[in-house]
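Subject: for your reference before the review

Hello V.,

The reviewers asked for a structural picture of the protein, and I figured it would be easier to keep everything in one thread rather than splitting it across files. Below is the amino acid sequence we used in the manuscript, unchanged from the supplementary table.
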Amino acid sequence: MGVVEHEAECNGGSLEVKALVATARTFPFELIGVDGGPLRGEVRSQAPAEMRPAVVVCHGFKGFKDWGFFPTVAGRIAQAGMTAVTFNFSGSGIGPDGSSFSEPERFRRATPSRDLADLRSIWNALRDGCLLDALPTPSAIGIFGHSRGGATALLHASAHPECRALVTWSAISSHMRWGPKTIRRWRKQGMIEIVNARTGELLPLGLDYLEDLERNGERLDPVTAARRLATPWRVLHGGADETVKVAEARALCAAAPEATTELVVIEGGSHTLGAQHPWAGSTVQLDRALDLTIDWFVRYLF
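And here is what came back from the structure prediction:
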């Protein structure tokens, strides 16, 4: 295959918004998260009692399973005949109502390693057929991740070659997103406050994050993970991403095996491919990314 980089043009009107199949059903589940609190998620499937491929969906930093495009991503996966598993990381800060930032202490303790542990819990329960009653073991499992969730998905896939397919959108190439001045203030104060652009809230992030990177920097490095990845990987990135530059996608792909990695730059695509929260409808960039994502999972999971 080779590491193929090409611009995916998005011509207005050239892509139709796919209607989600009404028969796809949603089933909530709850596991124990890495912090001992609830790990809340949902399963979407047209036929949950049938053995079929599954895709685990990972949201990013300040995201959650019901943000913007994630329900649409899960719906399209289910529409294509697979099972979609979405969940909120323990450190998302999102409470039981699925949208309010009502668990700030859980967000304060969030780290990349804890995200990985939560994903591993979901993966193991799904693989072993104990995520939901009557949900059988999948015939194959893939992972989808956006932004920091893309790095989490990559790190998991690189350590679990049984992962049959990986798709990331706007994945980060490094977990360290702050400069020296901010880090010094962070250490001095014992926390930094992250602005939630959606609500205007200030979200506290403690020292656990920095300490995790200090102890586990190489294990948590997405570029290092890309070098040892054996899973077929489609890397999608918005050409106008204002949060994670396209250079990060190129760095990841330069490290990944050429034969099983493909980079697609979505022309004009922002970090969220134009999607908003609350959901205000799709965009041509998002439609293109959805088509490319489903194509990859169908190709490698069936």
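For the response letter, the relevant points are probably these. The two ends are 19 Å apart (CA to CA). The CA atoms of residues 278 and 289 lie 19 Å apart.

Happy to draft the paragraph if you're swamped.

O.
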